Amino acid sequence: MRWTFDSREVKPGMGFIALKGEKVDGHAFIDKAKAAGAVDIIDGLDELQARAKARRRALSATVVGVTGSAGKTTTKELLKTFLSVAGKTSGTEGNFNNHIGLPLTILNCPDDAEFLVLEMGSNHPGEIAALCEIAEPDVGVVTGVGTAHLEFFGSRAGIAEEKGALLAAAKDFGIYPAWDDFAAVLGTRGDDAIGVTADRSPLAGSSDPLPPHFADNAALAFAVAARFGVTAEAARQALAGFALPGARWRKVEKDGVVFIDDTYNANPDSMIAALDALAAMPCTGRRMAVLGDMFELGPESFALHRKVFEHAQALPIRLVVGVGETSSRCPCHRAFATLADLKAVFADETRTGDVVLLKASHGMHLGELLV
Asked: By CB neighbour count within 10 A (0-12 exposed, 13-18 middle, 19+ buried), where does 17 fall?
């Protein structure tokens, strides 16, 4: 049975989940859902999570959990791609990675799935452990310990503790990046936690679908898939036609300018990785980085922003643009306090042959520059 939160999506035989939100109470749409053919109703968050936990225990699929400060969605999508070589694979769609989205993904997992890949997000201590209580992962993957949501964890050590909860909960084994500076901490979180080196063999001869800085994510995903019999050659072939969802390194050509739309989200680590990738891209015009504010970085926010902009200035990037209250105060060639200010002149800032990176936290809406 398929489940949905949206009564407009209900079709005969589906189930409807009625939750009370900040703006809308799903209970007001139960009658509409039933009229559309809903055959079962979940009433509230507690029942949703309880049903998901029971559903997970009824599944025969191997459950793989994925978390980390950056690269969760990329790694999750690569895991789905690689594991599909070994068997029918289901997993998180979009960014349904919280206490509501994860249970929905479990409920919608097909009975005959052999693998279920679950992205797990967290911005407060204890949330990964709570998700693991529902998902009961067989395998855990941590993509790294960065500075995302630093405001709520206080330190990177606190983030490592949070992400490491997935490795501790994994019943079979866990995977983490040996190149991370918190690798020693992560390695102590699970009895069978395995540090993975950046082996890029799955991408050999087939790197076009991914920018270079995502190769580490592929190494982590392949380390899991290899445990289930997927060869490097099969993984490489599976990458044919691979595309990341949403505004993640999406190439858009407009009036002779190549834009890299990477506006889905941002933190200092992903910013620096994206800048390095931009600097390595071939370009007949100028390389330009339009960088907007990053949110939830806490008291160190300005210092972390400044670090990103100083890194950008040291690279072969001709024009660095800062947008937003914090970014506009950092070292850059052009500064705009608001997106509206930049929009007014943006068309005049680009030229044919330029390659332009757009990156910021999603709430900055930097992607509107391409509309």
From this structure: buried
Pair 341, 366: CB distance under 8 Å: no
String of b and e for 205-236 (b: at least 16 CB within 10 Å)? Answer: eebebbbebbebbbbbbbbbbbebebebeebb
Share above pLDDT 70 across residues of the chain, in percent, rounded to a whole number: 96
Element (H, E) at 175: strand 173-177
Whole-angstrom distance, CA of residue 236 vs CA of residue 2? 32
Task: Report the distance separating Cα 142 and Cα 245, nearest Å.
Answer: 20
**10 pLDDT more than 90:** yes
How many domains are contained in the chain? 3
Q: Quick one: pLDDT at residue 204?
A: 55
pLDDT tens column, 125-145: 999 999 999 999 999 999 999
pTM for the whole structure: 0.82
Instruction: Tell me: do 204 and 78 sit in the same domain.
Output: yes
Flag whether 243 is in a domain: no
The set of residues, in sequence order, having a beta carbon less than 8 Å from that of 31 and lying 6+ positions away, is none
Domain that holds residue 320: 250-370
CATH number for 81: 3.40.1190.10
**Per-residue pLDDT, 206:** 54
Q: In this structure, are residues 142 and 175 in contact, taking their beta carbons and an 8 Å threshold?
A: yes
Asked, for residue 244, whether it belongs to a domain, the answer is no
